[in-house]
Amino acid sequence: MPTLILARHAKAEAPAPGLSDMDRALAVIGRKASMHLGEALTEAGLVPDLALVSPASRTRQTWKLMATALPACESRVVDAIYETHVPGLLRELATVDVDGTVVVVGHEPTSSAAAAFLAGPGSDKTALQRVAHGLPTATAAVLEFDCEWAELGPRTARLLAVVSGRDV
């Protein structure tokens, strides 16, 4: 059964004059939380077959550190993830050619909005409540579904859990 993990990047350094948003790096606490998120996914048996990562420095760093706790998998930097919303994310997911688990390392509010949009019957009530408040940094929503990636739409998935690197 295909699984989608929608992960928000870990805590980044504060904006600074002369530094673009795209170039903001992870804070020390964010680096630790990224590794913990990878560990939490591994412990939950959530092993990605493919990672789709926003080109922002903080998302690429988050994935690199998450991946240290996960078995190796293909990763792709996808420019569209940086400033997209739910429809754009679904367009990217429609091109996925993996039958297993895909992790998207992206940004808010798109990560939580996509999880809420996709969550349908059988979703975990606690996870739904957490997603409704937005995903904190270094946190991921985990969904599974019975359709093809290109068929994802409103209420076509089950939100199983929200996993956090901050809880470890």
Written overview of the protein:
The chain contains 5 helices and 6 strands, in the order βαβαβαβααββ. The protein is an alpha/beta fold and 168 residues long. A 6-stranded mixed β-sheet has the order 3-2-4-1-5-6. The chain has a single domain (3-11, 21-75, 87-164), classed as Rossmann fold, CATH 3.40.50.1240.
Key words describing this protein structure:
alpha/beta, Rossmann fold, 168 residues, 5 helices, globular
Give me the secondary-structure category: alpha/beta
CATH class: Alpha Beta
Q: Number of domains in the coordinates?
A: 1
Q: Strand portion, in percent?
A: 15-25%
Average pLDDT number: 97
Radius of gyration: 15 Å
InterPro entries: His_Pase_superF_clade-1, His_PPase_superfam
Pfam families: His_Phos_1 (PF00300)
Protein name: Histidine phosphatase family protein
Topology readout:
Layout (H helix, E strand, L loop, with lengths): L2 E6 L19 H16 L6 E4 L3 H11 L6 E4 L8 H8 L7 E6 L3 H9 L6 H8 L6 E7 L11 E8 L4
Parallel strand pairs: 1-4, 2-3, 2-4
Antiparallel strand pairs: 1-5, 5-6
Helix pairs in contact: 1-2
